[in-house]
Write a structure and sequence with these properties.
7-stranded mixed β-sheet; 4-stranded antiparallel β-sheet; mainly beta; 11 strands; single chain
Length: 130
């Protein structure tokens, strides 16, 4: 069983940048698909970004494309989300997730479904406000 701990959230102004991290422990996640999801106030959980095990293939939701970058450091067993040019609508609790059972299959559709991930970190809050 893998444990995920997200960190790095905070209060920033529109246009600012922020990097959030997700440290994994208990087992290596180098061979797993990992993702970031977020939940805005009063809204359902939504896909943000995912990265395949090889680290060379990423998926993003349209609204963050070109602004957010997901990456992983397998040596540190850590997942990152670099967020640039943040907007007020990016305000949310951000959750990292790991697919340790291979249920996303690296598939473009499944990789966006939270139900395909079996391990979750606690949320880290990101607030974008002037």
């Amino acid at each position: 069983q893998v444990q995920l701990v997200a960190s790095g959230g905070g209060l920033v102004q529109p246009g600012d940048s922020l990097r959030i991290s997700c440290a994994a422990s208990g087992r290596t996640v180098s061979s797993t698909v990992m993702g970031w999801f977020r939940q805005r106030f009063g809204m359902p959980l939504e896909f943000v970004a995912a990265i395949r095990a090889e680290g060379d293939s990423m998926d993003y939701r349209d609204s963050v494309m070109g602004r957010f970058t997901i990456s992983r450091d397998n040596a540190k067993n850590t997942l990152y989300l670099q967020m640039n040019n943040l907007r007020p609508e990016d305000t949310a609790d951000y959750y990292c997730a790991a697919d340790t059972r291979g249920r996303t299959r690296g598939n473009d559709y499944y990789i966006r479904l939270d139900s395909r991930y079996d391990s979750w970190g606690q949320g880290t809050q990101v607030t974008v406000s002037s």
